[in-house]
Amino acid sequence: MEFENKFSKVTKSMKSNIIRELLKDAANPNIISFGGGVPDPETFPRNELAEISLKVLKDEYKFTLQYATTEGDNELKKQYIKLLEKHEHIDWLNYDNMLITVGSQQALHLISMVLLDEESYCAVGKPVYLGAANAFKQSFPKFLEIPIKEDGMDLEFFEAKLKELKNKHEIEKLKFVYVVPNFQNPTGVTMSLEKRKKLSELSKEYNFLIVEDDPYGYLRFEGEKLPNIYSMNPERTLLLNTFSKILSPGLRIGIIIGPKELIRQFTIAKQSADLCCPSLTQRIAARYLENHDIIKELEPSLKLYKSKKDTMLEALKVEFENTSKVSWTKPEGGLFIWLTFDESTNTMEMFEIARKKGVLYVPGESFYVNEIEKNHMRLSFCLPSHDEIKEGIRRLRSVVEDYKKVK
Ligand SMILES: Cc1ncc(COP(=O)(O)O)c(C=O)c1O
C-alpha cells in the first residue's frame, strides 16, 4: 500500500530527531561520544529506587498498579511543593497550579497544542533546544529567533522585534517566549538576573507568556544560584521542571507549574494524549522526595560533573588554545559546552570525519529554526570518563585538522 497520501500535514512536516540519528553509533565502545545530554548512570540512586519500587508495589498497589488522574499524583505534588518552598521560596502553590507530565518533553508538546497555531508567533533562542523547536513546529507557528549572548537572550534585539510586532498590530499573536535560563541547551550559558527581570517586565508590557524550561537549574556546580523567572512573575510564566537530570530520566516525570486556568487546558490536552502519567513512577518519585533531600544528595553528582567539565575545558585549552579561530563557552553548570569555529567551518560536513576517527558531537545547525548557523558544535561532558574526554578532544583536534586539509 502507498502510505504517503494517508499522512497528515503535521506528519509530513516531521523530521526524525537529527541528534538521535547521528548518535546511533554512540554505543560502539571504540567511539567516544560527546553527543547526547544523558546523565551519568552512576549518579542514579539505583539501590534506593529499587527499595522504594518494591515497597510501593507491595504496600500501595491499589494506587501504583491502577490508572492515575490526568492531573497527576497529589502525593508527588505535595512533595514537590515542599521542595519549591525550601529551595525557591515559592510558597503559594496549590495542586491545581501543577500538572505532572511525561518528562518536560510532553510539557513542550502540550504547550504547542494549547497555545500555538499557524498565525501565532513564538520567540525562541538562536540557538534553541531542538526538542522544543520540534514540539512547537507541530503547530506551524512563525518563529522569532533571538540571539543568545554570554548572559542569555539578547533582550535589546527582542525588544526591537516586540516594537515591530506592535507597530504591525500583531503583538497579540505573540504567544510566548521560550527560554532555558540556566545552562541553556545547547550553549551552556545562563541568563543574568538583570535579564530575568527585564524579560519579566517585557512580558507584562507586551502581554505575552514566558515558558521557562529549567531541567538544569539544580545542576549548578559553581557561581551563584539565581532566582527563577516564575518566582518574579507567576501570572505570566510557565515553569517546566523534570526529574530527568536530578534523579533519573527513566522515570519520565516532568511537571508544569503555572496559572491554574492554563494548567486546566494542558490537562484537557493531556487527556487525549495519554490519559495520565504512569502511577508507578509518579509514586516512586513522591516517596523518594519524601525520604530524601534530593537537592543535597546531588552534591556528589555535581562534583563529578564539575570535574568532567574542568577536564574538558582543560583539554580544549591544550588542543585548541593556539587556534584563534575556535572559542567555547564556560558553563557554571548543566551538561554542555558550545564550540564556535570560523564561519567557513561546517560541522555537519566535518561529522563524517569525526565518526571515522571515533568521536561524536552534535553539529550546531540542529539548533536553529530560521537562519541556520553551521560553524558550531555542542559537546556534552557528562557521560565519558576523564580519560575518554581527554582522548576525545585529542581526536577532535585531529578531525578539525583533517577537515581543513580537504576543504
Ligand atoms: C532544555 C530541555 N528541555 C527539555 C528536555 C526534555 O527532558 P525530559 O523530557 O527528559 O524531561 C531536555 C532534555 O534534554 C532539555 O535539554
Please report which band the strand proportion falls in: under 5%, 5-15%, 15-25%, 25-35%, 35-45% or over 45%.
Answer: 5-15%
Spell the H/E element sequence: HHEHHHEHEHEEHEHEHEEHHHEEHEEEH
Q: What's the mean pLDDT score?
A: 95
> Low-confidence parts, pLDDT < 50 over ≥5 residues?
none
- CATH 4th-level superfamily of the largest domain: Type I PLP-dependent aspartate aminotransferase-like (Major domain)
Helical proportion, percent range: 40-55%
Evaluate the radius of gyration. Answer: 21 Å
- Count of helical stretches: 15
Number of domains: 2
- Which term fits the overall shape? globular
| Terminal-residue CA separation | 44 Å
Strand order of the largest sheet: 2-9-8-7-6-3-4-5
For the structure shown, list the relevant keywords:
407 residues, alpha/beta, Aspartate Aminotransferase, domain 2, four-stranded antiparallel β-sheet, binds pyridoxal-5'-phosphate
Task: Kindly describe this structure.
This protein has 407 residues and is an alpha/beta fold. It has 2 domains: 150 residues, Aspartate Aminotransferase, domain 1; 245 residues, Aspartate Aminotransferase, domain 2. 43% of the residues lie in helices and 14% in strands. An 8-stranded mixed β-sheet has the order 2-9-8-7-6-3-4-5, with helices on both faces. The longest helix is centred in the last third of the chain and has 22 residues. The chain starts with 8 loop residues before the first helix and ends with a helix. The mean pLDDT is 95. It binds pyridoxal-5'-phosphate (PLP). The site of pyridoxal-5'-phosphate has 14 residues, from helix 6.
